[in-house]
Amino acid sequence: MQLTAPATGRTEAPAPARTRDADGMAVASFILGLLGLLVLNLFLGPIAIALAAVSLWRGTARRGRAYLGLALGVADLAVLLIAIQVSHTVSWSL
Questions:
Q1: Can you tell me the distance from the alpha carbon of 25 to that of 44, in angstroms, rounded to the nearest whole number?
Q2: Of 36, 58, 63, 67, which has the maximum CB count within 10 A?
């Protein structure tokens, strides 16, 4: 019984899987940043920023989406700060 595939001589670099993961993180940062403008911006904003930064560091093919996720994450925190200044509380509602 053989548990592993035989070596074929050609080696595949894990770069496509790493790029695919980075692309997924770029999309996730965009979605979380967009969702964070509406709800849970204190949590979703920093997560969107972190995912965008990691996806850019890993060399995503979706750089525009990663930059949008980064910008939306920063906008989440800016909206939270503005809401805190206006309502003088940490929690806010529409």
A1: 14
A2: 36
Which token pair is 42? 């204190």
Q: Name the token pair of 79.
A: 């909206």
Whether residue 84 contacts residue 92, with contact meaning beta carbons closer than 8 Å, is answered with yes
Helix, strand, coil % in the chain, rounded to nearest 5 = 70, 0, 30
pLDDT in tens, the chain (94 residues): 566 766 666 555 556 666 678 888 899 999 999 999 888 888 999 999 999 999 999 888 888 999 999 999 999 999 988 888 888 776 655 5
**33 in Cβ contact with 47 (< 8 Å):** no
The whole model's pTM is what? Answer: 0.74
Sign of CA dihedral 33, 36, 38, 41: negative
